[in-house]
Amino acid sequence: MRIYDLKTEYRREPIGLDAANPRFSWKLESDKKNVVQSSYQILAYADEGGKSVLWDSGVVGSDKSQHVRWEGPELNSAKRVYWKVRITADGESAESEMTYFEMGLLREEDWHAKWIEPEGEIDFQAFQPAPYLRKTFRVREGLRSARIYQTAHGLYDFWINGKQGTEEKFKPGFTSYSGRIQYQAYDITELLLPGENVWSVILGDGWWRGTIGGMSRNNWGYKLHFLGQIILAYEDGSREYVCSDESFKAVTGGILVCDMKAGETFCAEKEPEGWKKAGFNDHEWKSVHVAKGQFCQNELLVPSRSVPVVEKERFSCKTFRDAEGSLILDFGQNIAGYVKMRLRNCKRGQEVVLVHGEDIKDGAFSVENLFAEMFTEERFQQVRYVAEGEAEEIYCPTFSVFGFRYVKVAGYEEEIKPGDFVAVAVYSDLEETGDFSCSNPLVNQLVKNSRWSQKGNYLDVPTDCPTRERSPWTGDSQVYCRTAADFMNVYPFFEKWMQDFNLD
Q1: In the Cβ-directed half-sphere of 53, how many Cα atoms lie within 13 Å?
Q2: How far apart are CA 89 and CA 3, in angstroms?
Protein backbone atom coordinates (compact mmCIF):
# COMPACT_ATOMS: atom_id res chain seq x y z
CA MET A 1 0.00 0.00 0.00
CA ARG A 2 1.37 3.39 -1.03
CA ILE A 3 0.38 7.02 -0.55
CA TYR A 4 1.24 9.30 -3.49
CA ASP A 5 0.38 12.52 -5.32
CA LEU A 6 0.37 14.75 -2.24
CA LYS A 7 -0.90 18.25 -3.06
CA THR A 8 -1.61 21.49 -1.26
CA GLU A 9 -4.23 23.74 -2.83
CA TYR A 10 -4.26 21.42 -5.88
CA ARG A 11 -0.54 21.82 -6.59
CA ARG A 12 2.56 19.80 -5.82
CA GLU A 13 4.97 21.66 -3.54
CA PRO A 14 3.52 25.11 -4.29
CA ILE A 15 5.28 28.36 -3.44
CA GLY A 16 3.24 31.49 -2.78
CA LEU A 17 -0.06 30.47 -1.15
CA ASP A 18 -2.35 32.84 0.69
CA ALA A 19 -5.00 30.41 1.95
CA ALA A 20 -5.42 30.77 5.72
CA ASN A 21 -6.36 27.09 5.91
CA PRO A 22 -4.76 25.35 2.92
CA ARG A 23 -6.43 22.22 1.54
CA PHE A 24 -4.51 18.93 1.41
CA SER A 25 -5.08 15.93 -0.80
CA TRP A 26 -3.44 12.56 -1.46
CA LYS A 27 -4.08 9.27 -3.22
CA LEU A 28 -3.85 5.66 -2.12
CA GLU A 29 -2.53 2.79 -4.21
CA SER A 30 -2.73 -0.89 -3.26
CA ASP A 31 -2.13 -4.22 -4.96
CA LYS A 32 -5.40 -5.42 -3.38
CA LYS A 33 -8.91 -4.64 -4.60
CA ASN A 34 -11.48 -2.44 -2.88
CA VAL A 35 -9.05 -0.96 -0.37
CA VAL A 36 -10.62 2.06 1.35
CA GLN A 37 -8.93 4.44 3.76
CA SER A 38 -10.35 4.26 7.28
CA SER A 39 -8.27 6.95 9.03
CA TYR A 40 -5.61 9.58 8.42
CA GLN A 41 -3.13 11.61 10.43
CA ILE A 42 -1.40 14.71 9.04
CA LEU A 43 1.94 15.68 10.56
CA ALA A 44 3.35 19.13 9.73
CA TYR A 45 6.84 20.39 10.59
CA ALA A 46 8.88 23.56 10.49
CA ASP A 47 11.89 21.66 9.15
CA GLU A 48 12.50 19.07 6.45
CA GLY A 49 13.95 16.64 8.98
CA GLY A 50 10.68 16.50 10.90
CA LYS A 51 12.11 17.55 14.26
CA SER A 52 9.96 20.62 14.98
CA VAL A 53 6.26 19.74 14.90
CA LEU A 54 3.91 22.56 13.86
CA TRP A 55 0.69 20.58 13.79
CA ASP A 56 -0.48 17.04 14.44
CA SER A 57 -4.03 16.45 13.30
CA GLY A 58 -4.25 13.34 15.45
CA VAL A 59 -5.81 10.16 14.08
CA VAL A 60 -9.02 11.10 12.27
CA GLY A 61 -11.40 8.29 11.44
CA SER A 62 -12.37 9.18 7.88
CA ASP A 63 -12.04 8.06 4.27
CA LYS A 64 -11.60 11.69 3.24
CA SER A 65 -8.45 12.42 1.22
CA GLN A 66 -9.49 15.60 -0.61
CA HIS A 67 -10.10 19.08 0.83
CA VAL A 68 -8.62 18.18 4.21
CA ARG A 69 -7.90 21.60 5.71
CA TRP A 70 -5.03 22.92 7.77
CA GLU A 71 -6.04 23.33 11.42
CA GLY A 72 -2.64 24.22 12.82
CA PRO A 73 -1.30 27.62 13.97
CA GLU A 74 -1.64 30.77 11.87
CA LEU A 75 0.64 30.75 8.84
CA ASN A 76 2.90 33.75 8.27
CA SER A 77 4.29 35.31 5.09
CA ALA A 78 6.89 33.18 3.24
CA LYS A 79 6.52 30.40 5.84
CA ARG A 80 7.53 26.97 4.52
CA VAL A 81 5.73 23.98 6.02
CA TYR A 82 6.77 20.35 5.51
CA TRP A 83 4.08 17.70 5.86
CA LYS A 84 3.28 14.04 5.43
CA VAL A 85 0.28 11.83 6.05
CA ARG A 86 -0.24 8.43 7.66
CA ILE A 87 -3.27 6.35 6.82
CA THR A 88 -4.86 3.04 7.77
CA ALA A 89 -6.89 0.93 5.37
CA ASP A 90 -8.18 -2.61 5.79
CA GLY A 91 -6.05 -3.14 8.87
CA GLU A 92 -2.85 -1.99 7.18
CA SER A 93 -1.00 1.30 7.60
CA ALA A 94 1.19 3.43 5.36
CA GLU A 95 3.11 6.67 5.59
CA SER A 96 3.84 9.09 2.76
CA GLU A 97 7.09 10.78 1.91
CA MET A 98 7.59 14.36 3.07
CA THR A 99 6.34 17.22 0.90
CA TYR A 100 5.97 20.96 1.50
CA PHE A 101 4.13 24.16 0.73
CA GLU A 102 5.21 27.75 1.17
CA MET A 103 3.16 30.82 1.89
CA GLY A 104 3.26 33.98 -0.20
CA LEU A 105 3.39 37.62 0.87
CA LEU A 106 0.27 37.94 2.99
CA ARG A 107 0.44 41.61 3.99
CA GLU A 108 0.68 44.76 1.91
CA GLU A 109 3.69 45.88 3.94
CA ASP A 110 5.58 42.73 2.83
CA TRP A 111 5.97 44.41 -0.55
CA HIS A 112 8.94 46.78 -0.77
CA ALA A 113 8.82 46.97 -4.58
CA LYS A 114 7.28 49.73 -6.67
CA TRP A 115 5.16 49.42 -9.80
CA ILE A 116 7.32 50.65 -12.68
CA GLU A 117 6.45 51.90 -16.15
CA PRO A 118 9.05 51.49 -18.92
CA GLU A 119 7.16 53.27 -21.72
CA GLY A 120 7.01 56.97 -22.51
CA GLU A 121 4.51 58.59 -24.85
CA ILE A 122 2.96 56.01 -27.18
CA ASP A 123 0.40 55.78 -29.97
CA PHE A 124 -2.15 53.62 -28.18
CA GLN A 125 -3.93 52.81 -31.44
CA ALA A 126 -0.84 51.09 -32.85
CA PHE A 127 0.89 47.88 -31.81
CA GLN A 128 3.80 48.60 -29.49
CA PRO A 129 7.18 46.86 -29.19
CA ALA A 130 7.78 44.75 -26.09
CA PRO A 131 9.65 46.59 -23.30
CA TYR A 132 12.88 44.94 -22.16
CA LEU A 133 13.79 45.53 -18.50
CA ARG A 134 17.10 44.94 -16.76
CA LYS A 135 18.61 45.34 -13.30
CA THR A 136 21.97 44.25 -11.84
CA PHE A 137 22.39 43.42 -8.16
CA ARG A 138 24.94 41.77 -5.91
CA VAL A 139 24.65 38.62 -3.82
CA ARG A 140 26.90 38.10 -0.81
CA GLU A 141 28.53 34.83 0.20
CA GLY A 142 26.45 32.59 2.45
CA LEU A 143 23.15 32.76 0.54
CA ARG A 144 20.66 30.32 2.05
CA SER A 145 17.60 30.88 -0.16
CA ALA A 146 16.16 33.32 -2.67
CA ARG A 147 12.56 33.92 -3.70
CA ILE A 148 11.22 36.09 -6.47
CA TYR A 149 7.68 37.54 -6.54
CA GLN A 150 6.48 39.17 -9.77
CA THR A 151 3.47 40.38 -11.70
CA ALA A 152 2.63 42.72 -14.56
CA HIS A 153 -0.07 44.68 -16.29
CA GLY A 154 0.22 42.61 -19.43
CA LEU A 155 2.38 39.48 -19.54
CA TYR A 156 5.94 38.93 -18.39
CA ASP A 157 8.78 36.50 -18.90
CA PHE A 158 11.97 36.66 -16.82
CA TRP A 159 15.57 35.44 -16.69
CA ILE A 160 18.21 35.34 -13.98
CA ASN A 161 21.78 35.52 -15.31
CA GLY A 162 20.53 34.57 -18.76
CA LYS A 163 18.65 31.47 -17.60
CA GLN A 164 14.87 31.25 -17.97
CA GLY A 165 13.31 31.60 -14.55
CA THR A 166 10.37 29.25 -15.17
CA GLU A 167 8.74 27.15 -17.87
CA GLU A 168 5.31 28.60 -17.04
CA LYS A 169 3.70 30.66 -19.81
CA PHE A 170 1.37 33.66 -20.07
CA LYS A 171 2.05 34.93 -16.56
CA PRO A 172 0.49 36.39 -14.46
CA GLY A 173 -2.73 35.11 -16.04
CA PHE A 174 -6.01 36.93 -16.62
CA THR A 175 -7.98 38.32 -13.69
CA SER A 176 -10.48 41.08 -13.13
CA TYR A 177 -7.71 43.64 -12.80
CA SER A 178 -9.87 46.20 -11.01
CA GLY A 179 -10.48 43.66 -8.23
CA ARG A 180 -7.30 41.59 -8.04
CA ILE A 181 -4.01 40.92 -9.83
CA GLN A 182 -2.16 37.63 -9.49
CA TYR A 183 1.55 37.38 -8.79
CA GLN A 184 3.83 34.34 -9.03
CA ALA A 185 6.50 33.18 -6.59
CA TYR A 186 9.55 31.10 -7.56
CA ASP A 187 12.62 29.67 -5.89
CA ILE A 188 15.62 31.14 -7.73
CA THR A 189 18.34 30.11 -5.26
CA GLU A 190 20.12 27.87 -7.77
CA LEU A 191 20.17 30.60 -10.44
CA LEU A 192 22.12 33.10 -8.37
CA LEU A 193 25.88 33.48 -7.98
CA PRO A 194 28.08 35.30 -5.46
CA GLY A 195 28.84 38.75 -6.87
CA GLU A 196 27.03 40.49 -9.72
CA ASN A 197 23.72 39.05 -10.94
CA VAL A 198 21.27 40.19 -13.62
CA TRP A 199 17.46 40.19 -13.47
CA SER A 200 15.92 40.50 -16.94
CA VAL A 201 12.27 40.87 -17.89
CA ILE A 202 10.27 41.22 -21.12
CA LEU A 203 6.70 42.51 -21.03
CA GLY A 204 3.93 41.69 -23.51
CA ASP A 205 0.47 43.12 -24.21
CA GLY A 206 -1.46 40.05 -23.05
CA TRP A 207 -5.04 40.41 -21.90
CA TRP A 208 -4.23 43.84 -20.48
CA ARG A 209 -4.00 45.84 -23.70
CA GLY A 210 -3.88 43.19 -26.44
CA THR A 211 -6.56 42.01 -28.85
CA ILE A 212 -8.52 39.42 -26.91
CA GLY A 213 -12.03 39.41 -28.38
CA GLY A 214 -13.66 40.92 -31.44
CA MET A 215 -11.63 43.92 -32.57
CA SER A 216 -11.09 45.49 -29.14
CA ARG A 217 -7.67 46.44 -27.76
CA ASN A 218 -6.52 48.41 -24.71
CA ASN A 219 -9.35 46.94 -22.68
CA TRP A 220 -7.70 47.69 -19.33
CA GLY A 221 -4.90 50.14 -20.03
CA TYR A 222 -2.66 51.76 -22.62
CA LYS A 223 0.73 51.09 -21.00
CA LEU A 224 2.48 48.06 -19.53
CA HIS A 225 3.70 47.94 -15.93
CA PHE A 226 5.84 45.61 -13.83
CA LEU A 227 6.16 44.80 -10.15
CA GLY A 228 8.83 42.47 -8.79
CA GLN A 229 10.71 41.67 -5.60
CA ILE A 230 13.56 39.30 -4.76
CA ILE A 231 14.16 38.32 -1.13
CA LEU A 232 17.66 37.06 -0.35
CA ALA A 233 17.99 35.12 2.90
CA TYR A 234 21.49 34.47 4.25
CA GLU A 235 22.93 31.88 6.62
CA ASP A 236 23.62 34.58 9.23
CA GLY A 237 19.89 35.31 9.46
CA SER A 238 19.99 38.58 7.52
CA ARG A 239 17.74 39.49 4.58
CA GLU A 240 18.15 41.71 1.56
CA TYR A 241 15.51 42.99 -0.85
CA VAL A 242 16.02 43.57 -4.57
CA CYS A 243 13.01 45.45 -5.88
CA SER A 244 11.51 46.97 -8.98
CA ASP A 245 12.12 50.71 -8.74
CA GLU A 246 13.73 53.58 -10.65
CA SER A 247 17.02 51.65 -10.83
CA PHE A 248 15.63 49.36 -13.54
CA LYS A 249 16.75 50.17 -17.10
CA ALA A 250 14.49 49.76 -20.16
CA VAL A 251 14.76 49.57 -23.93
CA THR A 252 12.95 47.95 -26.85
CA GLY A 253 14.51 45.04 -28.72
CA GLY A 254 13.63 42.47 -31.33
CA ILE A 255 9.96 41.93 -30.40
CA LEU A 256 8.21 44.66 -32.38
CA VAL A 257 4.66 43.30 -32.00
CA CYS A 258 3.44 40.89 -29.31
CA ASP A 259 -0.33 40.63 -29.47
CA MET A 260 -1.98 37.41 -28.23
CA LYS A 261 -4.32 37.26 -31.22
CA ALA A 262 -2.70 39.29 -34.02
CA GLY A 263 0.64 37.57 -33.41
CA GLU A 264 4.27 38.58 -33.12
CA THR A 265 6.88 40.36 -35.20
CA PHE A 266 10.50 39.73 -34.30
CA CYS A 267 13.47 41.46 -35.91
CA ALA A 268 16.63 39.55 -35.05
CA GLU A 269 18.83 42.51 -36.07
CA LYS A 270 17.33 44.65 -33.28
CA GLU A 271 17.83 42.13 -30.49
CA PRO A 272 20.53 43.39 -28.06
CA GLU A 273 23.13 40.64 -27.80
CA GLY A 274 23.95 39.42 -24.29
CA TRP A 275 21.56 41.78 -22.51
CA LYS A 276 20.37 39.10 -20.07
CA LYS A 277 23.86 38.46 -18.66
CA ALA A 278 26.38 40.28 -16.52
CA GLY A 279 28.89 42.54 -18.25
CA PHE A 280 26.39 43.98 -20.75
CA ASN A 281 26.68 47.73 -21.30
CA ASP A 282 23.23 49.25 -20.68
CA HIS A 283 24.36 52.88 -20.32
CA GLU A 284 22.22 53.93 -23.30
CA TRP A 285 19.13 52.29 -21.84
CA LYS A 286 16.59 54.60 -20.24
CA SER A 287 15.59 54.58 -16.58
CA VAL A 288 12.01 53.59 -15.85
CA HIS A 289 9.63 55.68 -13.76
CA VAL A 290 7.26 54.74 -10.96
CA ALA A 291 3.73 53.99 -12.09
CA LYS A 292 0.64 55.20 -10.27
CA GLY A 293 -3.08 54.70 -10.66
CA GLN A 294 -5.99 52.60 -9.51
CA PHE A 295 -4.43 49.34 -10.75
CA CYS A 296 -1.05 49.94 -9.08
CA GLN A 297 -2.26 49.19 -5.57
CA ASN A 298 -0.70 46.44 -3.47
CA GLU A 299 -4.08 45.69 -1.91
CA LEU A 300 -5.06 44.13 -5.28
CA LEU A 301 -2.25 41.54 -5.21
CA VAL A 302 -3.07 37.86 -4.74
CA PRO A 303 -0.91 34.77 -5.39
CA SER A 304 -1.71 32.50 -8.34
CA ARG A 305 -4.94 30.66 -7.61
CA SER A 306 -4.92 28.05 -10.37
CA VAL A 307 -2.51 25.70 -12.10
CA PRO A 308 0.03 27.28 -14.49
CA VAL A 309 -0.11 27.37 -18.28
CA VAL A 310 2.65 25.21 -19.76
CA GLU A 311 3.81 23.66 -23.01
CA LYS A 312 2.32 20.19 -23.51
CA GLU A 313 2.18 17.92 -26.60
CA ARG A 314 4.43 18.47 -29.60
CA PHE A 315 3.65 17.72 -33.25
CA SER A 316 5.84 17.36 -36.30
CA CYS A 317 4.52 18.41 -39.69
CA LYS A 318 4.01 17.20 -43.21
CA THR A 319 4.51 19.74 -45.97
CA PHE A 320 2.66 20.27 -49.24
CA ARG A 321 1.79 22.93 -51.79
CA ASP A 322 -1.86 23.96 -51.80
CA ALA A 323 -3.99 24.84 -54.83
CA GLU A 324 -2.55 28.36 -54.85
CA GLY A 325 1.04 27.13 -54.71
CA SER A 326 1.60 28.20 -51.09
CA LEU A 327 3.82 26.15 -48.80
CA ILE A 328 1.63 24.56 -46.11
CA LEU A 329 2.64 22.80 -42.90
CA ASP A 330 0.12 20.22 -41.70
CA PHE A 331 0.56 19.23 -38.05
CA GLY A 332 -2.24 16.67 -38.14
CA GLN A 333 -4.04 17.99 -35.05
CA ASN A 334 -6.02 21.13 -34.33
CA ILE A 335 -4.45 22.76 -31.27
CA ALA A 336 -4.00 26.01 -29.41
CA GLY A 337 -0.33 26.88 -29.19
CA TYR A 338 2.50 28.07 -31.42
CA VAL A 339 5.29 26.85 -33.69
CA LYS A 340 8.96 26.60 -32.75
CA MET A 341 10.93 27.09 -35.94
CA ARG A 342 14.49 26.61 -37.10
CA LEU A 343 15.39 28.59 -40.23
CA ARG A 344 18.46 27.91 -42.36
CA ASN A 345 20.52 30.10 -44.67
CA CYS A 346 18.31 33.18 -44.48
CA LYS A 347 19.66 36.46 -45.79
CA ARG A 348 19.93 39.46 -43.50
CA GLY A 349 16.59 41.28 -43.50
CA GLN A 350 14.72 38.36 -45.08
CA GLU A 351 11.15 38.20 -43.71
CA VAL A 352 9.55 34.82 -43.04
CA VAL A 353 5.81 34.87 -42.35
CA LEU A 354 3.72 32.16 -40.70
CA VAL A 355 -0.07 32.38 -40.89
CA HIS A 356 -2.01 29.98 -38.64
CA GLY A 357 -5.37 28.51 -39.63
CA GLU A 358 -7.70 25.54 -39.32
CA ASP A 359 -9.00 24.90 -42.80
CA ILE A 360 -8.12 23.80 -46.31
CA LYS A 361 -10.95 25.02 -48.55
CA ASP A 362 -11.15 23.96 -52.21
CA GLY A 363 -7.57 22.77 -51.90
CA ALA A 364 -6.20 26.07 -50.58
CA PHE A 365 -5.23 27.33 -47.12
CA SER A 366 -8.09 29.39 -45.73
CA VAL A 367 -9.06 31.40 -42.65
CA GLU A 368 -12.54 32.22 -43.95
CA ASN A 369 -14.12 29.96 -41.32
CA LEU A 370 -12.65 32.20 -38.62
CA PHE A 371 -14.08 35.51 -39.82
CA ALA A 372 -17.45 37.10 -39.58
CA GLU A 373 -18.47 40.67 -40.43
CA MET A 374 -17.12 41.92 -37.08
CA PHE A 375 -13.77 40.18 -37.55
CA THR A 376 -11.95 42.22 -40.16
CA GLU A 377 -8.45 42.48 -38.72
CA GLU A 378 -5.74 42.95 -41.31
CA ARG A 379 -3.34 41.10 -39.03
CA PHE A 380 -4.54 37.81 -37.57
CA GLN A 381 -2.63 34.83 -36.10
CA GLN A 382 0.65 35.74 -37.80
CA VAL A 383 4.31 35.44 -36.92
CA ARG A 384 6.71 37.66 -38.85
CA TYR A 385 10.40 36.92 -38.41
CA VAL A 386 13.06 39.22 -39.86
CA ALA A 387 16.31 37.27 -40.12
CA GLU A 388 19.75 38.34 -39.01
CA GLY A 389 21.51 36.36 -41.73
CA GLU A 390 22.99 33.52 -39.69
CA ALA A 391 23.38 29.96 -41.01
CA GLU A 392 20.73 28.82 -38.53
CA GLU A 393 18.20 30.89 -36.59
CA ILE A 394 15.66 29.67 -34.04
CA TYR A 395 12.52 31.46 -32.93
CA CYS A 396 9.35 30.81 -30.95
CA PRO A 397 6.64 33.34 -30.03
CA THR A 398 6.75 34.58 -26.45
CA PHE A 399 3.39 36.26 -25.87
CA SER A 400 1.12 34.97 -28.67
CA VAL A 401 -1.01 31.84 -28.97
CA PHE A 402 -2.95 30.58 -31.99
CA GLY A 403 -5.64 28.09 -32.88
CA PHE A 404 -4.50 26.03 -35.86
CA ARG A 405 -3.74 22.79 -37.59
CA TYR A 406 -2.23 24.29 -40.74
CA VAL A 407 0.41 26.99 -41.14
CA LYS A 408 1.05 28.85 -44.38
CA VAL A 409 4.72 29.76 -44.80
CA ALA A 410 5.82 32.68 -46.94
CA GLY A 411 9.30 34.03 -47.61
CA TYR A 412 11.15 30.77 -46.99
CA GLU A 413 12.17 28.29 -49.68
CA GLU A 414 14.82 26.15 -47.97
CA GLU A 415 14.29 22.42 -47.64
CA ILE A 416 12.34 21.71 -44.48
CA LYS A 417 14.01 19.00 -42.43
CA PRO A 418 12.50 16.99 -39.55
CA GLY A 419 12.34 19.16 -36.45
CA ASP A 420 12.60 22.47 -38.28
CA PHE A 421 8.96 23.35 -37.54
CA VAL A 422 7.37 21.86 -34.40
CA ALA A 423 3.90 22.78 -33.15
CA VAL A 424 3.50 22.95 -29.38
CA ALA A 425 0.13 22.72 -27.63
CA VAL A 426 -0.11 25.21 -24.76
CA TYR A 427 -2.79 25.10 -22.07
CA SER A 428 -3.46 25.01 -18.34
CA ASP A 429 -1.65 22.12 -16.69
CA LEU A 430 -4.78 20.29 -15.55
CA GLU A 431 -4.46 16.69 -14.43
CA GLU A 432 -6.27 14.29 -16.77
CA THR A 433 -8.57 12.19 -14.59
CA GLY A 434 -11.02 10.40 -16.88
CA ASP A 435 -11.18 8.67 -20.24
CA PHE A 436 -13.60 6.59 -22.28
CA SER A 437 -13.16 4.07 -25.06
CA CYS A 438 -15.40 1.50 -26.70
CA SER A 439 -15.53 -0.75 -29.75
CA ASN A 440 -16.85 2.02 -32.01
CA PRO A 441 -14.01 4.06 -33.57
CA LEU A 442 -16.33 6.98 -34.39
CA VAL A 443 -17.40 7.34 -30.75
CA ASN A 444 -13.76 7.10 -29.69
CA GLN A 445 -12.88 9.88 -32.13
CA LEU A 446 -15.71 12.01 -30.74
CA VAL A 447 -14.25 11.60 -27.26
CA LYS A 448 -10.78 12.51 -28.53
CA ASN A 449 -12.13 15.58 -30.33
CA SER A 450 -13.96 16.69 -27.19
CA ARG A 451 -10.83 16.39 -25.07
CA TRP A 452 -8.82 18.40 -27.59
CA SER A 453 -11.52 21.07 -27.61
CA GLN A 454 -10.92 21.37 -23.88
CA LYS A 455 -7.15 21.50 -24.24
CA GLY A 456 -7.49 24.13 -26.95
CA ASN A 457 -9.77 26.39 -24.93
CA TYR A 458 -8.50 26.14 -21.35
CA LEU A 459 -5.61 28.61 -21.29
CA ASP A 460 -5.91 30.14 -17.80
CA VAL A 461 -9.51 31.08 -18.68
CA PRO A 462 -12.13 29.17 -20.73
CA THR A 463 -12.59 30.54 -24.24
CA ASP A 464 -15.15 29.54 -26.86
CA CYS A 465 -12.51 29.07 -29.56
CA PRO A 466 -8.74 29.67 -29.53
CA THR A 467 -8.76 31.52 -32.86
CA ARG A 468 -11.15 34.48 -32.74
CA GLU A 469 -11.05 34.89 -28.95
CA ARG A 470 -8.58 35.11 -26.07
CA SER A 471 -11.18 36.16 -23.51
CA PRO A 472 -13.46 33.89 -21.44
CA TRP A 473 -17.11 33.27 -22.17
CA THR A 474 -19.74 31.88 -19.82
CA GLY A 475 -22.16 30.32 -22.30
CA ASP A 476 -19.73 27.85 -23.87
CA SER A 477 -18.21 27.04 -20.49
CA GLN A 478 -21.46 26.21 -18.72
CA VAL A 479 -22.49 23.91 -21.56
CA TYR A 480 -19.20 22.03 -21.44
CA CYS A 481 -18.12 22.16 -17.77
CA ARG A 482 -19.69 18.81 -16.82
CA THR A 483 -17.75 17.03 -19.55
CA ALA A 484 -14.66 19.02 -18.60
CA ALA A 485 -14.88 17.65 -15.06
CA ASP A 486 -15.00 14.09 -16.42
CA PHE A 487 -11.80 14.58 -18.42
CA MET A 488 -9.71 16.68 -16.02
CA ASN A 489 -9.51 17.99 -12.49
CA VAL A 490 -10.88 21.43 -13.36
CA TYR A 491 -11.67 22.47 -9.79
CA PRO A 492 -8.81 25.00 -9.36
CA PHE A 493 -9.30 26.29 -12.92
CA PHE A 494 -12.98 27.12 -12.42
CA GLU A 495 -12.57 28.22 -8.82
CA LYS A 496 -10.07 30.88 -9.89
CA TRP A 497 -12.11 32.05 -12.87
CA MET A 498 -15.42 32.17 -10.99
CA GLN A 499 -13.84 34.42 -8.36
CA ASP A 500 -13.07 36.89 -11.15
CA PHE A 501 -16.53 36.36 -12.62
CA ASN A 502 -18.03 37.30 -9.25
CA LEU A 503 -15.86 40.42 -9.10
CA ASP A 504 -17.01 41.48 -12.57
Answers
A1: 6
A2: 11
Q: Give the start-to-end residue ranges of the domains of the chain.
A: 2-103, 108-260+277-306, 310-428, 441-503
Q: How confident is the model over 134-143, as pLDDT tens digits? A: 999 999 999 9
How big, in percent rounded to 5, are the helix, strand and coil portions of the chain? 10, 40, 45
pTM of the model: 0.95
Residue 261 makes CB contacts below 8 A (sequence gap 6+) with 210, 211, 212, 377, 380, 381, 400, 468, 469, 470
Q: What is the pLDDT of residues 44-58, one digit of tens each?
A: 999 999 999 999 999
Just give the CATH number of 2-103: 2.60.40.10
Which contiguous run of DSSP H or E holds residue 69? strand 68-69
CATH 2.60.120.260 fits 108-260+277-306, yes or no: yes
With CA atoms as reference, report the closest residue to 104 among 167, 187, 177, 176: 187
Nearest to 342 by CA among 431, 425, 420: 420
Q: Rounded distance, CA 232 to CA 192, Å?
A: 10
Judge whether 2-103 and 310-428 match in fold: no
